[in-house]
Request: fold
Amino acid sequence: MNILGIDSSTKKMTVAVSIDGRLVSEVPDLTSRRHMINIIRNLNLTLKRACIKIDDIDCFGVNVGPGDFTGTRIGISVIKTFAMIRKRPAYGFNSLDLYALGLACLNKGLLYRSLIRKRPVVLMPCLDVKRQELYFSFYGVSRVQEKNACFKENTGVGSGSEKGGFINNADYEVAIINIRGKGFLLRRICGYILIGKDDFLNRACSIIKNEIPDAMDVMVAGAGGDSFYGFESYEKEDKAGNVSGIRAEEEQSHIFNTFGVREPVIISGGNCFLEYGSLMESLSSVYRGLLMEKRCIYPEARYINMGVSFRAGKNMVPGNPVPVYVREFVPFGK
Reply:
């Protein structure tokens, strides 16, 4: 399957082509900020490097925001135009889904070490959406064969267009991540949350301490127990692939145990660090199990392609990609 993805939702525009699940070409554009002028040129360059033509593309994908008002719409318009002309499906992805996928891919080693020991992993992408507001959500990662026993429904979390708390629905599955020959499923487990910066810390702490543990109960039980939370020795591979026994407290001594024996690893990232770094540091000081990934500042088209491959492989209906508004949009003249 040949996939073309475009992400123009931030000042960094990327265009990527994947063939049969493998990224073969990606063109980033961080310096120009001239998306309208450069998008077709970058698209052609990406196709040329992949040695294919636009006629060879089977599926299209695009970031539908939230993001830059004009840039997001440029990418959506281009993708929908090509999809319509070529009569191919086009999939749209929320920015938070792509940031979560980026967090997972940038931390494959940590995910693998945690999940093979059946320690829960939660991802928390967080975006600065201006007007002193933040937009965030939570995502769970689990082995593919354990996905039906990972998260239980809880009505305590969620806001905006989606309410109802922790969710276990195929529509919220984002992608499969392959790590060392094993498949791990990334799924959003609560609604998209828009909140003022002054209320963010209390809200995030409340969710982490009071709501996520309920979801983790089922996740840990389905994964086979919680003995891995003790300070027993376990095996770890070094960079050369050698295995040696170390003690768990070497990695866990910095974690404040708010979850008893079921404390997950929480990885946070997104552009919120650019404006609200001190706020995220405060959250990290409250819950020491939270790790801040500052490399994940921009979403990438390669992650769009991973999502398209997953959705197309499950024959999910692509729908109509439209821009995501975190606030009510009032058209001109209204």
Summary: The chain has two domains: 2-94+299-313, 97-293.
